[in-house]
Each structure stands twice: as C-alpha cells, then as structure tokens.
Amino acid sequence: MMGKFSKIAVTVMTVLLVGGAVPTTASAAYWHKGTPKVLRGHWKSKSFNYNGNKAHNGWIVGKKTITSASESMPVQVWKNLKYKKAGKGTYKFKGTCYQGVTKVSNPHIKMVKKNNHLKFKISWSSSYSYLGWYHK
Question: In this structure, are residues 128 and 110 in contact, taking their beta carbons and an 8 Å threshold?
C-alpha cells in the first residue's frame, strides 16, 4: 500500500516540476513588435460631407505600420511599432509617428476592436475621447 502511494507522489511531483519549467511564449505585459493580426486591414469611418463631396476617414493597419488618412489632415504614418494587450479587444501602441514630414513626439495609440468594428484614440489617457467607430 505504501509503495503505491510513493509512486503516485513521485509522479505528481515530477509532473509539477516539469510542467512549471515550460516557458510561456507570450505575455500581456510584454511589448510585442508590429501589430496584432486581429487588427490588420483597411478601416473606414461612416461617410460624411466634405466640401460638397462624400468622404471617409481611414486607417490601414499593416504588419509593421499604421497609416491614418483624412480629408482635412495630413497623412499620419506610424512605424517601429510595439504593442501590448490592455484588456479584451483593447491594445496600446507606441512607436514613431510622422504627420506629413513632421515627426510627432511621444506618440501613443489605443485601439479597441468589438464586433468587427474598431475605434481609435491618439492617447492612452481617459481624458481624451475615441475617434468614433470604423468598419472594414
């Protein structure tokens, strides 16, 4: 009877020791390079009237860059991106941003994906609002 208990105890200890030694491959607190696959694609806002024409604002989320285009603003290109997951469907980004030819200092983006829609915020602060919902 004692021999059976000893074998089970040794087996359990071995499984716990070996299982605890396996490294994890990803962590939510770790900054990953590029953009998450779930956010990639072309995103556009609802159409609006701009100088008598139908217009859209758009974001293109690529593997390594994010590009923002608007009818009334210069193009913004985000490069050297790093991201981390901040909650369910929520991601924080940092990197290098160029608005036209001007480099933006200390740029941040926060994105939320929900039901095949995406919303953006050009800050992590809660005092700034999101730029509305975008769809593919």
Answer: no
Of 44, 38, 31, 5, whose CA–CA distance to 133 is shortest? 44
Alpha-carbon gap, residue 7 to 17, rounded angstroms: 15
pLDDT 10s digit of each residue in the chain, 136 long?
A: 556 656 665 565 555 555 555 444 556 679 999 999 999 999 998 888 878 888 888 999 999 999 988 877 789 999 999 999 999 999 999 999 998 889 988 888 999 999 999 998 887 777 788 888 888 8
d(CA 58, CA 71): 9
38: DSSP letter: G
At residue 126, what are phi and psi to the nearest 5 degrees? Answer: -75, -10
CB 99 within 8 A of CB 107: no
In the block, residue with structure tokens 């990953």: 32
- The pTM assigned to this predicted structure is 0.72
Q: Pairing between strand 53-55 and 76-87?
A: unpaired
